[in-house]
Design goal:
Order of helices and strands: HEHHEEEHEHEHEHHEHEHEH
Distance between the termini: 29 Å
Largest sheet: 8 strands, mixed
Radius of gyration: 18 Å
Number of strands: 10
Number of helices: 11
Helix content: 25-40%
Bound molecules: iron/sulfur cluster
Structural class: alpha/beta
């Protein structure tokens, strides 16, 4: 797409297509009480798709605490020294997912560079607890990069998730300013390792658009992800959590998201969610059944 086709909406103005869908508070209230001290990313990130996802039986749980050892410039999670792991968390997670009658459970976490295995064994415990409690639910993990450790990726895969997701988040050029302690190639390495070690488990990744990347850089990133074996893809609009985070450089239009989706499908991605309000877990279950 040429620059001339881009809309003249200032980054400070919210375009009409970014209006969040109304949340069904009936669903929210009925499920909220089952969560106890566990928290879902759906709530803490004020995800615009919460009502739709919870109604369809999908929710994303954040494990290993709410303090991250990293400080990505797009993320609202606090940076600091995390607390020790809670050995009861896998059982509590499984029980909450059962009470919420979930059909597709997404497990994600803060990055735990303080742990020798990055928390891989804990991810595996959570998957096993869920399998035991909810044998028919599908399980997706959205992991940190484990500092590129193949052993950590192998430990998570050995527990048998249905989808292995690691978000590259942005294009190569912007990785340093956006994900300060991460490396673009290290994320690709994690995805490649997962695809090679468990070819029957789909590998998934995603990026945010609107951080200052060009269309050409997005296409280059999609090519890199395909070359790393990724088959499920999400692309959504970057939203600035606060004035202390990176500014929104542009509003990507629904047509542009559609164009990215077409290019991605041409490259061979099996399932693509690309739209202004798309987040990592949006329509996650459909990707498996599609
Ligand atoms: S590693 Fe993940 S949780 Fe931690 S700051 Fe970055 S995006 Fe947020």
């Amino acid at each position: 797409m040429s620059d001339g086709e881009k809309p003249a909406i200032a980054p400070g103005e919210r375009p009409p297509w970014m209006r969040a869908r109304a949340i069904s508070f009936d669903i929210y209230d009925s499920m909220k009480h089952t969560l106890g001290s566990l928290h879902t990313v759906c709530e803490s990130a004020r995800c615009p798709n919460l009502g739709e996802c919870w109604k369809s039986g999908t929710a994303t749980f954040m494990i290993m605490g709410d303090i991250c050892t990293r400080s990505c410039k797009f993320c609202a999670i606090s940076t600091g020294r995390p607390r020790p792991l809670d050995p009861d968390e896998p059982a509590r997670l499984a029980e909450a997912a059962r009470e919420m009658k979930l059909r597709h459970v997404v497990i994600t976490s803060v990055t735990r560079d303080d742990l020798a295995d990055g928390g891989a064994a804990h991810f595996a415990e959570c998957i096993r607890a869920l399998r035991q409690t909810m044998p028919t639910a599908t399980i997706e993990v959205l992991t940190p990069d484990f500092e590129g450790s193949r052993e950590a990726v192998a430990a998570v895969l050995a527990a048998g998730p249905d989808v292995f997701n690691h978000n590259v988040e942005t294009v190569r050029r912007l990785t340093e300013p956006v994900r300060i302690q991460a490396r673009y190639d290290r994320s690709l390495q994690v995805l490649r390792a997962a695809s090679e070690m468990a070819p029957s488990i789909p590998t998934k990744s995603g990026i945010m658009a609107g951080l200052g990347e060009s269309d050409g850089e997005v296409i280059e990133t999609l090519r890199d992800l395909r070359a790393a074996g990724v088959s499920f893809l999400t692309i959504g609009q970057y939203m600035r959590p606060s004035a202390n985070h990176l500014p929104i450089e542009r509003w990507v239009t629904p047509d542009e998201f559609g164009w990215f989706k077409e290019r991605a499908l041409e490259m061979g991605f099996r399932h693509v969610e690309s739209g202004p309000l798309v987040r990592s877990s949006y329509h996650a279950a459909q990707a498996l059944s599609g």
